[in-house]
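FIELD: query
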Amino acid sequence: MADYKGIKGGKVQNFSTNPPAPIVGQVWYNETTRTLNYFASNPVGSFATGGNLNTARNNVGGAGTQTASLAFGGAAPPNVDITEKYNGTAWTEVGDMNTARSKIMGSGFGLQTAAIACGGATDDYSALSETFNGTSWTETNDLNSAREQMGSVSGTTTAGLVFGGQGPPPAMQVSCENYNGTSWSEVGNLNTGRYLLAGSGVVTAGLAFGGDTDPGKQDITESWNGTAWTEVADLNTARASLQGFGVATASLAVGGNTPPISALNEIYNGTCWAEGADLSTARSALGSGRSGTTTVGVVFGGGAPSLTAATEEWSQPVTLTRSADTD
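FIELD: result
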């Protein structure tokens, strides 16, 4: 029978602390804790079915986390003002938006109890902004540029960022606007104007990826450092009407239209994109809780290609170090 040295090519080593970057299957002895340790593999992430929205719709806005999300607006059709809260199991309708609108996909940010929705489509391009306090919506200062189908990062009701989109006359937007809790200010432009794009990260460090330049689905990814945008590694598959969540160095790009409508999921590690486990159902124009990571997140609604109320929850367990007491 093969022993550990025969399998790994060396003896079990002693360390005063756990090694900083163990390899899968490595065994070592921690002299401080007096434990024998084994480093397990990083399990592959996957999407699992969550509770359905009460109203199927696409181009829906979203905010929050996997266990405390908010879905607002969208097209059922027609455009709706419906707001629903998710508790990790089921959705419950709460106070409606003041103005029904769709195509706010990616342009909502914040928490389940403190969110903001901006832009979108009513009968025309909209600059409207509304804040949510956990119960009801209140109109606040408008965007500087009316637009729809833009991207955003995960923010708060006192700090947010939206970018790109489509505005009048039908034109791809490069402008980026920052929210300070009271009003919107224009900041550094995207390098490539596009709409139907996705975003992730936060106000000081974010990503913008995918989108459409009409015509032309895009694989472009740009990184935001709080001041300016820089092009980084492209998506593996160009697509629009996708959704994103995570941080600037660890994000997911989910679903979209390549065409056709896609279930694709790609994971960004701060340097490049790699394909991950796909959605259970291909869909575009979906919403997201936005405040997710590469280990946990949630998406909902969209077109599949018909409207869907489905919610899918992303989970990727962290790497594991298992220990056995030797005393």
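FIELD: remark
The chain has two domains: 4-39, 46-315.
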